[in-house]
Specification:
Blueprint (H helix, E strand, L loop, with lengths): L13 E5 L4 H12 L3 E6 L2 H15 L3 E5 L5 H15 L4 E4 L14 H29 L2 E6 L12 H21 L4 E8 L14 H10 L12 H8 L10 E4 L7
Parallel strand pairs: 1-2, 1-4, 2-3, 4-5, 5-6, 6-7
Helix pairs in contact: 1-2, 1-7, 3-4, 4-5
The chain binds nicotinamide-adenine-dinucleotide (NAD) and D-gluconic acid (GCO).
Amino acid sequence: MLPGIKLFDLTGRVAIITGGSKGLGSAMAEGLASAGANLLLTSRNQDEVEATAAQIQADYGNKVIGMAADVTDPDQVTAMTERAISEFGKIDILINNAGINIRGPIDDITLEEFQDVQNVNVTGPWLCVRSVVPHMKKAQYGKIINLASTLGLVGMSNRTPYTSSKGAMVQMTRALGLELCEYGITCNAICPGPFLTPMNEPFAETEEIKKFIVGAVAMNRWARMEEIQGAAIFLASDASSYMTGSMVTVDGGWTAR
Ligand SMILES: NC(=O)c1ccc[n+]([C@@H]2O[C@H](COP(=O)([O-])OP(=O)(O)OC[C@H]3O[C@@H](n4cnc5c(N)ncnc54)[C@H](O)[C@@H]3O)[C@@H](O)[C@H]2O)c1
Ligand SMILES: O=C(O)[C@H](O)[C@@H](O)[C@H](O)[C@H](O)CO
């Protein structure tokens, strides 16, 4: 008999999720915890990330640690990896979720803003992968999941920093997917459509976004937070063992148009 649903089981697996204090990061943390994984969540704010970790640990019973670590700081990324190894002895899964979005016409965006977005959204994930990969190579096992975006696949006006960074993550996923699979490590990306997270909440009532949701998203609505969990559990588990360098869109039909 083939394993079937057991392929999705994450019992005993260890996952790092960057930007795990809120939004999609905390939704995916709950999803992985419900499938049995132990977690190290990071974000820049110690109190916030500790509170999220404590809540998930209380709700699901798994070991969940919250730690302040900025993905753009190589020393803090090293500390993140060392903490995961000292607490759990291994790292099976890395979800590169931390990200920011600065919107505006190109002549309003400053160089510093453009570079900040590339730093968090591209350099950060690259640093995290570089840091965990030696442990994954030693174990000959690893599942790396990057949060790209539909905006890595299609364009949108007034989004030059964000679209540039997410396009880069699509290509980084493909390159890592090829480079690492000989070590038993896969790298895939989720390309979410619009989710009503703290990143998007301030813009939810703008005419631009309302028009866009109706005009571009076939399902004609924002995604619900739990709608990210299936893709995250799938890519974190052995259910996706023959996938590397793939983009999984969760976008209500946006890119099918
Ligand atoms: N919300 C969406 O509709 C959507 C769509 C497509 C892609 N994404 C991507 O999904 C990811 C999560 O988005 P979200 O909407 O949940 O965002 P969010 O703003 O709600 O949460 C982002 C998280 O990242 C953390 N973070 C930000 N900068 C950091 C840094 N330098 N170091 C460590 N942590 C940092 C924040 O503390 C927070 O925990 C991002 O990469 C985003 O680009 C989101
Ligand atoms: O206003 C924006 O820039 C968009 O709403 C993004 O935040 C998207 O939600 C997401 O990236 C979709 O792919």
